[in-house]
């Protein structure tokens, strides 16, 4: 899955994560060190070259010589050379013992490691020791820095762990992590988010003898999901590997995962899953036990967790450790392939909740009409929480066929406190939901047609209303209100810098609350006048909350053609700020034949996700996100999907950067590999049989990484230039229902955790810090253990961050993207 402007976790997420170097800043990351260095040290290299030496400080690969008046004190730690060890989960762990000396004699020091998920050293509680043994956890590979500190001086030694997971033949039924990926019945394949939260037919059984005779990929054999060069966050549910070829079936599959450095390797062989059902026959009406094609298979969840927690770290000599997947399929005693892709793993986890609207959800029945099978369907705002295999209903109670329970179109504040939802039976009626109070609903009857699609301030305390026609009912002018409004009526606040007749389409505040962007549809601000029917203008204003003043209008994009919702031009709208607050992603409407509203996503509407920066206002296509490699589509095609690169809509972004990237969520009608391949226009349950697996709607939520920049030689270097494409291939958001049409996902914060509570990252904690409970203890929300902040811990400026390569983004230390 993926918003933090305060001290909490962000959004979307899916899966669990283990404490790791850049994954968990609390485990360490040191000022002056690469992202895998330890809090409290100041070494400036992770390449094995000494950085201490004369004059004190810290050293990596060297020692210290200090003294005065001709005396010399030599502090050293042996072994000094990089130590490489091979480990296997569940096996006896090899160890490395380090010894500290002063002038050749043993001396007591404090020991620590920067990546507690890789291993431990020393004792709990901490005791000064002259020698200590590093013990790997056996769950994660990669490079770990071992620090020895004496009298304020630190030496760093390195251990490189090569993790080799045992070869696997068939699903591991005794492994709890794989239980959610094993289908016990055909009904499990379509329930919730599908088996494993990603669909397909689940993990297959052992296969007696995978063929040794191998032919190259033939008969059109190709991976159709995931995409090559995808950037994945840590903490995700394992993806579903999907392939197409002429036989449209297989007897077995063999999957191999390896990192470029050799820090992780695994091979798994799997036969046809017992619940493999023919595409087009799985539904409540399908005959039981129908045998079908074998054209997809998941990566086991425990293997995926080990692989992604290992990949993405720094390797000996510098550089990032990428993950390569290799797939071979067997048919008739011959293996075909391999098919290979290389992925980047961002060393940061995505956690929190995604809120999105769903038409055709099976979790509730509340529509004011009947579906194609003449039964009531569901329409609601759903939520996906970290690690979940399926969503839950957040807004949209069951109701009669009058549809009074229908809740769909919505906006959410970035801190996860407020949700606004429209009533599908009457869009003039709005409900507000207190997400921090058991989703308590207040039906707002005193001010109809006011707050639908409003722009919420990050903490939910203000709302600038929307005037774009997105469905029936919107105010005549955009005004700023305190939020949530008083029960007896909403009174606009007195503001400066915007006219009383402003018409702002789909406004959105930046994560720091200092800017607001919208499509300028009417009114005059300085010399610029908004137009509902002229060229579409996406603009940005600065905002001062203390004085409630708007200023400094800039144009971010001007769409060609006469922008209007009647199909006569292109519209630039639905802006969403990058977490760096210096650029926006937005929805560029390319075609709108139905003319039902201004930023349409259905009935043949076409759109792409574009972006523009605040400094220059240079608009550009996020072409890689949209499915383009340059000007050529890399997305799979069929008769229903000749070109999916123009079927991408409604971007939102996470206010916090994680793992060195911004994360953009968007709605798309593209094919989801070979799971969702039908007519992309089908998503309204009233128009098709939404209970048939062949009709799994393609309207789903996707996520893509976007470069933000990094520190280079002490200076922040933007990860993009105006007009470039800083995006990467997208991945399918796990845990969303397969059958339903899903759209407009918001990544938001979870309520912060009190001191002493368990945590993964500092942004989950009310105090902003997630620290080990002792040198080898579990992570808890607590005071900082060092005089600086780790990754995803709170900051005011980059100088607060332990890692000199970190940047401060919306109040949290973030790793920068790699600059090539």
The appropriate CATH architecture of the largest domain is 6 Propeller
Given helix and strand content, the structural type is mainly beta
Uncertain stretches of 5 or more adjacent residues: 1-58, 277-290
- By DSSP (H or I, 4+ residues per run), the number of helices equals 2
Number of strands: 54
The N- and C-terminal alpha carbons lie at a distance of 27 Å
Quote the CATH topology of the largest domain. Neuraminidase
CATH level 1 class label of the largest domain: Mainly Beta
Helix content: under 10%
Main sheet, how many strands, which sense, barrel? 12 strands, mixed
**Overall tally of domains:** 3
Fourth CATH level, the homologous superfamily of the largest domain = TolB, C-terminal domain
Keywords:
single chain; 820 residues; mainly beta; Immunoglobulin-like; Neuraminidase; 12-stranded mixed sheet; 2 helices; disordered N terminus
Protein model, in words:
- The chain has three domains: 46-64 and 74-162, Sandwich (Immunoglobulin-like); 168-349, Immunoglobulin-like; 353-748, Neuraminidase.
- The longest helix has 10 residues, at 301-310.
- Strands 1, 4, 7, 10, 11, 12, 13, 15, 17, 18, 20 and 21 form a twelve-stranded mixed β-sheet that branches. Strands 2, 3, 5, 6, 8 and 9 form a six-stranded antiparallel β-sheet that branches. Strands 24-23-22-50 form a four-stranded antiparallel β-sheet, with no helix packed on it.
- It is mainly β.
- Strand 23 and strand 24 (392-395) form a beta hairpin.
- The protein is built from two helices and 54 strands.
């Amino acid at each position: 899955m993926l918003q933090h402007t305060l001290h909490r976790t962000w959004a979307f997420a899916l899966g669990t994560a283990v404490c790791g170097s850049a994954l968990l800043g609390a485990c360490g990351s040191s000022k002056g060190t690469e992202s895998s260095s330890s809090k409290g040290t100041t070494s400036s290299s992770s390449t094995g070259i000494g950085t201490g030496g004369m004059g004190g400080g810290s050293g990596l690969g060297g020692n210290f010589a200090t003294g005065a008046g001709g005396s010399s004190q030599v502090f050293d730690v042996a072994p000094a050379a990089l130590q490489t060890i091979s480990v296997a989960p569940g096996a006896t762990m090899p160890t490395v013992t380090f010894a500290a000396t002063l002038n050749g004699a043993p001396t007591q020091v404090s020991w620590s490691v920067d990546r507690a998920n890789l291993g431990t050293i020393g004792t709990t509680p901490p005791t000064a020791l002259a020698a200590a043994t590093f013990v790997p956890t056996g769950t994660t590979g990669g490079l770990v820095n071992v620090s020895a500190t004496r009298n304020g001086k630190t030496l760093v030694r390195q251990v490189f762990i090569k993790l080799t997971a045992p070869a696997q033949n068939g699903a591991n039924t005794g492994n709890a992590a794989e239980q959610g990926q094993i289908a016990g019945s055909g009904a499990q394949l379509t329930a919730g988010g599908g088996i494993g939260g990603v669909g397909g037919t689940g993990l297959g059984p052992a296969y007696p003898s995978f063929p040794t005779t191998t032919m190259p990929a033939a008969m059109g054999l190709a991976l159709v999901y995931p995409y090559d060069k995808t950037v994945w966050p840590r903490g995700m549910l394992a993806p579903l590997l999907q392939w197409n070829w002429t036989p449209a079936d297989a007897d077995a599959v063999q999957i191999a995962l390896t990192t470029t450095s050799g820090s992780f390797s695994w091979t798994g062989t799997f036969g046809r899953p017992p619940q493999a059902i023919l595409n087009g026959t799985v539904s409540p009406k399908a005959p039981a036990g129908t045998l079908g094609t074998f054209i997809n298979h998941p990566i086991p969840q425990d293997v995926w967790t080990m692989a992604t927690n290992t990949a993405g770290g720094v390797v000996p000599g510098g550089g990032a450790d990428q993950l390569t997947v290799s797939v071979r399929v067997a048919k008739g005693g011959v293996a075909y392939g391999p098919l290979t892709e290389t992925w980047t793993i961002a060393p940061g986890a995505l956690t929190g909740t995604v809120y999105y609207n769903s038409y055709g959800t099976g979790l509730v029945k509340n529509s004011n009409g009947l579906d194609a099978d003449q039964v009531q369907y569901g329409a609601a705002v759903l939520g996906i929480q970290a690690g979940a295999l399926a969503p839950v209903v957040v807004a949209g109670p069951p109701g009669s066929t009058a549809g009074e329970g229908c809740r769909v179109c919505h906006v959410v504040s970035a801190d996860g406190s407020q949700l606004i939802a429209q009533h599908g039976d009457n869009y003039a009626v709005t409900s507000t939901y207190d997400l921090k109070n058991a989703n308590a609903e207040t039906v707002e009857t005193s001010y109809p047609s006011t707050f639908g699609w409003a722009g919420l301030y990050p903490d939910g305390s203000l709302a600038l209303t929307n005037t774009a026609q997105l469905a029936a009912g919107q105010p005549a002018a955009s005004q700023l209100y305190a939020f949530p409004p008083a029960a007896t009526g909403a009174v606009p606040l007195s503001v400066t810098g915007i006219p009383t007749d402003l018409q702002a389409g789909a406004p959105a505040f930046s994560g720091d609350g200092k800017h607001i962007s919208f499509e300028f549809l009417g009114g005059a601000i300085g010399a610029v006048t908004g137009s509902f029917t002229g060229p579409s203008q996406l603009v940005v204003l600065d905002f001062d909350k203390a004085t409630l003043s708007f200023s400094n209008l800039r144009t971010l994009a001007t769409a060609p053609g006469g922008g209007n919702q009647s199909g006569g031009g292109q519209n630039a709208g639905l802006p969403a700020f990058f977490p760096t607050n210096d650029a926006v992603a937005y929805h560029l409407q390319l075609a709108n034949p139905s003319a039902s509203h201004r930023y349409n996503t259905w009935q043949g509407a076409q759109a792409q996700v574009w972006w523009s920066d605040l400094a220059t206002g240079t608009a550009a296509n996020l072409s890689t996100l949209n499915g383009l490699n340059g000007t050529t589509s890399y997305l799979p095609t069929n008769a229903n999907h000749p070109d999916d690169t123009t079927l991408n809509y409604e971007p939102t972004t996470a206010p916090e950067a994680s793992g060195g990237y911004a994360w953009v969520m968007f709605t798309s009608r593209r094919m989801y590999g070979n799971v969702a391949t039908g007519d992309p226009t089908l998503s309204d349950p009233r128009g098709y049989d939404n209970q048939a697996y062949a009709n799994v709607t393609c309207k789903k939520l996707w996520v893509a990484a976007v470069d933000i920049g990094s520190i280079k030689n002490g200076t922040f270097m933007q990860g993009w230039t105006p007009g470039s494409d800083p995006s990467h291939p997208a991945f399918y958001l796990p845990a969303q229902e397969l059958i339903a049409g899903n759209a407009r996902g918001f990544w938001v914060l979870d309520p912060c955790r009190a001191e002493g509570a368990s945590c993964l990252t500092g942004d989950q904690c009310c105090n902003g810090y997630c620290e080990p409970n002792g040198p080898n203890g579990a992570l808890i929300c607590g005071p900082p253990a060092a005089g600086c902040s780790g990754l995803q811990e709170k900051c005011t400026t980059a100088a607060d961050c332990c890692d000199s390569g970190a940047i401060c983004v919306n109040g949290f230390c973030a790793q920068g993207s790699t600059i090539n």
